[in-house]
Fold:
Amino acid sequence: MKYNYSRLFFVLFFLGVVFSQAWSQTTVTGCAPDYAGSELILNSYSDPFTGSEKEISRCPVDKQGNFSLKFQIQETQSVFLHLGIYNCNLYVKPGVNYQVVLPSKKLKSPADEVNPYFEETTLALSARESDGDSLNAKILAFDDRFYPCLNKFLLMKRGKTLFHSLDSAILTLSVSFTPQDTNYFENYVKYRIGLLRFLVFQHPARSTSDSLFLTRKILYHNTAYIELFNQVYDKYFLFFGRTKKGEKIYDDIGRDKSYAELRQTLGSDLTLGNKALLELVILKGLHDEFYGSNFSRSALLNVLDSLRSSTQIEEHRSIADHIRAKVTRLLPGFEPPPFTLYNADSTLVKLSDFKGKWVYLNFGVTMSYTCMKEDEILDRLEKKFKGQFKIVTVSFDDNFKTMRNYVKRKGYTWTFLYCGNQTSLLKEYNIRAFPTCYLINPDGKLSISPAPLPSENIELTIFSAMRSRGDL
Structure:
């Protein structure tokens, strides 16, 4: 058999060009002497519903303040940097270099670091873009006009004056921000104006869905699209379930635990004629219902897992994974969030290192009087039951030295780990007060979540859990 090698080479070359264009390298560079010696971590949101973040790049800042974050993306999206009290946003496109200016460094206070309710100040980064498009400047200029307009009309009384004034304002916005070969910005403006109409005119969800979602491509990374989507399809199961043809969803999920039946029932709604859109609406509905009381969590998980295994859309498979991870986080029977931290001897320790043992995991601050009193009880438990279960304390002290000196001074022999800059553990473990505790079984899964404090007769609780598994 003869091969046409020149043709094969051309095909491979063409595919290589297409692939490289689809996943071009994007860079974010700058000079910020305030941040010299620190590390920058660039994130994006992993999906439209859970608020989960994923790291897409990190880099050190050199002594002069220079940095260069490099990453590959397939389409335009929003990314952000957590910088002290700030959350700095930037819109990035594949293959474009962005020179950005970071805000002056303002660190969180120690109290802010351990406060799960602390909200960072959102800033839009100023950027010079190598393609000359100025997407970030356009979005910033549009938002500066859009949000005051939205707030103004939301406060106005309904009537002819409102409708006439809003139509005029929308026309002005549309004309003032005519897109110029920027598809992302064109859609951004379209869906922002759609949000304005939806909230102020109180457009029915059906008409908004028909005009802006039903026959259009899903824009997973366009922030304006996602915000309007979440508004239009908010509590969709609840409202559709009140209709005659929609009431069957309660049997589809609660009794039959059937994704196929649910899809068929929801598919009868004309607003969900688009199969991809239907799947995305179901994903949002399942996510929202985990925080309601209409369905059991096991039924919702069954439907979610069925959707994940049957979908042909990779993005939906990923969204299902993130929803599952969020809703099962800290539930008994599921694995706790993993972490790797330094112990008092400066050795890296993983939570998974303790698999095969019962683990009493607690989070605290060594300088807290309450934590110190609980530690005294833990010390007695450690001396009395050493070998039967492990005690692991994660310290959120201001610095490593404080924790190490405390452990050395007290002579404590169980494992102390320093949280360092991994303050995300506060959110992952839902820590709202110190100390907070969990009991993990030898399979590496949560047994009691949260667990009683040492002073709350934890000894009896631990051994009752061990006996129930036959470990005693």
Remarks:
- Residues 169 and 411 are 69 Å apart (CA to CA).
